[in-house]
Design goal:
The chain has helices spanning 2-5, 8-33, 35-38, 43-69. With 70 residues, the protein is mostly helical.
């Protein structure tokens, strides 16, 4: 059974699951924090406000953490 947990497929799946869960949490947290800012804007402008900090957090926070955990 030890071979399964060290297999590349399991490690890649663990990385992807960690990245997806982390990304989901980042998007929801940013929407919660920026709700008052994007409340009166349309969907396109609201996305324009939320996406840059989301991408930055994913690149410098979630993906390195997911790599470290997998």
């Amino acid at each position: 059974m030890r071979g399964f947990f060290s297999s590349p497929l399991f490690l890649e799946a663990r990385f992807l699951i960690t990245a997806i869960v982390g990304g989901y949490m980042v998007v929801n947290l940013l929407n919660l924090l920026l709700y008052r800012v994007i409340e009166g804007l349309g969907q396109a402008w609201g996305s324009a406000v939320v996406v840059p900090p989301m991408v930055t957090t994913m690149i410098y926070g979630v993906v390195p953490l997911a790599r470290r955990l997998s």
